[in-house]
Amino acid sequence: MNRTALLSVFEKRGIVEFAQQLVTLRFRIFASGGTANKLAEAGIPVSDVASLVGGDAILGHRVVTLSREVHAGLLARDTREDREELDRLGIPWIDLVCVDLYPLRVEIENPNSTRESVIEKTDIGGPTLLRSAAKGGRIVICDPDDRGRVIEWLKEGEPDRETFLHKLAAKTEMVVARYCLDSARYHSDGDYDGLIGKQVATCLYGENAHQAPAALFSTDTEDPLSLDRFEHVAGTVPSYNNRCDQDRLLQAITHIAATLDVNYEQVPFIAVGAKHGNLCGGAIANDDPIKVLRKMICGSLIAIHGGLVMTNFGIDEEGAETLLTYQQTKGRRLLDGIFAPVFTEGAVKMLERKRDKCRFLVNPELGRLGHESLDQASRFRQVRGGFLRQPNYTFVLDLTDPRIEKVGKATSEQEKDLLLALAIGSRSNSNTITIVHDTMLIGNGVGQQDRVGAARLAIDRARSENHETDGAVAYSDSFFPFTDGPKVLIDAGIKVIFASSGSVRDEEVKTFCREHDVVLYLIPDKVGRGFFGH
Length: 534
Description:
- This protein has 3 domains: about 5-185, Rossmann fold (3-Layer(aba) Sandwich), CATH 3.40.50.1380; about 215-370, AICAR transformylase, duplication domain (Cytidine Deaminase, domain 2); about 400-530, Cytidine Deaminase, domain 2, CATH 3.40.140.20.
- The strands form 5 sheets. It has a 6-stranded mixed beta sheet with strand order 8-13-12-11-9-10, sandwiched between helices. The protein has a 6-stranded mixed beta sheet with strand order 16-21-20-19-17-18.
- A hairpin with a 2-residue loop joins strand 9 and strand 10 (about 280-285).
- The longest helix has 27 residues, at about 160-185.
- The chain contains 20 helices and 21 strands.
- It is α/β, with parallel strands linked by helices.
C-alpha cells in the first residue's frame, strides 16, 4: 500500500537521499516550496503541498502548510469514520512528516539581527506540523540525524511501532518547546527563562542513596566541553557526585587555562584534583606533565585519595604510575574518576579499581584549552518555588589591568602563583582563602563563614600536609573587612596577597601589609570578586 510523506526542511543537506529512500519504500511525497524544488531538480517525483490546499503559498510564503487539509491528514484517527471523511474531502492520510525549523536561535544570537529579522526566522508552520503529526501518532522527524534511523526502522518492518513513534513524538515536543522558549526569552528580554534538556546519562542515585532516580541532562548546546561531550571509556557509571565534581574541575581548569593564556599567551600543562566539590590539588608546569601530576597530588595527599582528577594532557603508563604510587606509603592510591584528552590502554588497565569504581572519561577538547574555553552560559540554581539565574563567572585577571592597585611589587614567579591561586579560589565555595607556592596549590580554605576562619583553614591544611607556607602567595575571594585576616596569613609567612577592594578599612589593610613588607594586589570588588558556589 502506498503511503504519503510530507517534507518541509530549512536545511536541505541530505534531504534528496532521504526522499529517494522513501520513494523506494513506496511513499508518495508532498513537499513545500524550496524543498519541492530541490527534490524535483534531483528527479524525485514530488507534489507541491499547495496542491493539497487548493492554491499556492500566500502572503509572501508566510502561509503554506497552515491549512485544514494538511492538518486533517495528520490529525485524523485511524477509524472508519475519519478515513471515510478524508476520502470524501479528497484529503490524503499523511503517514510521515519530516520538518526542521527555521534557525531561530542562530538569528537571535546574530549581533546584527533586528526584531524584524528574528520574526522572519520564527517558524510557525513547522512547529504546527510537527505537533499535529505527534498528536496524530504519525512518523514525525524533527532532527536530520533521525532520518537514517527511521529508514532502517521502516525497512525492518517497523518493530515495536508504538514505542518507536512515542519516542519520536516526545523528541518533537521537546524540540518545539525549546524553540518556543528561545522565542519567549527573546521577546521578553529575559523575563521568561528556563531549562529544557534530554536525559543523556543515568546515575545510580543522587547525592545520597535515598535520592533516586538521578540523571544527567543535556541542553543541547554547541559547547564542546559540556559534560555530555565527555566519552565514558571505562569504569562504572559516574555518580551524581562525580558529575558535580566533573563540573567543578572543568570550571577550574578552564579558568586556569584562560588566565595563563591571557597573561602569557601560553597554556602550560595543568592538573587539578577535587574532593567533595572543591579543589584539593592544582598545579602547572611548562615542561613536564609528570611533574604537574606530582605537585597536584601533593596538594593534599589525604584529600586526593578517593578524589577525581582532570588534566589538559593525556595519561599514559608513566602518568598512571604517578597517580597510583607517588608519595603513597602503603598500597596504591584510589581515585574515583579521571578526565583527560586521551588515555593509553595500559594506563586504564593500571588505574582500574575493583568493581570498576574508577571512571575514565575522555574529551580531546581538554587538550586545546585557552582563553576562549570559559563557560559563557548563564548559571541556574533551583530554589523552592523557582530558580535563580545569573551570568557565569568569566572574570579573568590581566596583570596589566590599570584597575589593579598594587602595594609593592611581586616577582614574576609570585605573580604566576597569584594567577593560579585566583583561578582556583574563584572556583571554590566562598568564603575562600587559597594558598599557592611554587605553582602548586598547598592549602584551600573553602566555604567558611568568615575570612579569618578561611585564612586559618588554608594555613592549617597546608601545614597538615607539611607544606612550607613561608614565601607563599594567598588569594582572597573578596575584600578583608579588618586586618585580622591578613595577620593570620602574614604570621604564617605569606609574602603576596591578592584580594578585592571595597572595605571601609581598605587603607588600614594596605598600611598593615606595607608595614609588614607584604605585597598586596587589589582589584575593585565590583570588578573581580570571586564568590562561587555560595
